[in-house]
Amino acid sequence: xxxxxxxxxxxxxxxxxxxxxxxxxxxxxxxxxxxxxxxxxxxxxxxxxxxxxxxxxxxxxxxxxxxxxxxxxxxxxxxxxxxxxxxxxxxxxxxxxxxxxxxxxxxxxxxxxxxxxxxxxxxxxxxxxxxxxxxxxxxxxxxxxxxxxxxxxxxxxxxxxxxxxxxxxxxxxxxxxxxxxxxxxxxxxxxxxxxxxxxxxxxxxxxxxxxxxxxxxxxxxxxxxxxxxxxxxxxxxxxxxxxxxxxxx
Length: 249
Known about the structure:
The protein has helices at residues 16-27, 39-49, 63-77, 101-128, 150-170, 190-194, 200-207, 218-229, and strands at 7-11, 31-36, 53-57, 82-85, 132-137, 175-182, 240-243. The protein is α/β, with parallel strands linked by helices. The chain has a single domain (7-187, 217-240), classed as NAD(P)-binding Rossmann-like Domain (Rossmann fold), CATH 3.40.50.720. The two termini are 33 Å apart.
């Protein structure tokens, strides 16, 4: 077990990448706080994991909710070692001119400001227990943007810049900070990212852009997160790991 005895918070863990990470981390010996704005989804995932997990309904754009999330980790498991900033939001793939201001604000609140809130509330907790790991889930679109998700890709580009700055500033506190850049994946946001209804024809068009010939899976991102949070990666900080089947090449 590669992270046995560690305690991890995973945001957006009621489905998709977050669910995959939570379940993989628990299988590798960690205790996990399953945080999601959808409390029912968070409880489902925690129940499926069992005693190694606790659920909490969390809006990552609310400092009060974020502080409660960190308190839950300490109250339930007595410490904190890992923070996965996974919760995300997007507009539907389409013209950048069709995204209204409220949607733009929501994209940046969830994808970018939430990293700030989690750092302000969570870094002191990590420092209390000797350091730890932060992983920000970004997107291959942050590195290789394409038309249709301009504002979303920009928010994830900001997440990558934040990752590098945080890595340097927090290194003296023994806190490593890395990012993962997934490709289009089989999650609840699939059709939003595609901008069309999911169909064999639509998938074929997107698969043509991925050299390894398939969509991403939550297990792909979970494996990368596990590595970055394990002792195998103890000398790695400030990177963006492309988990994209070659899409970014």
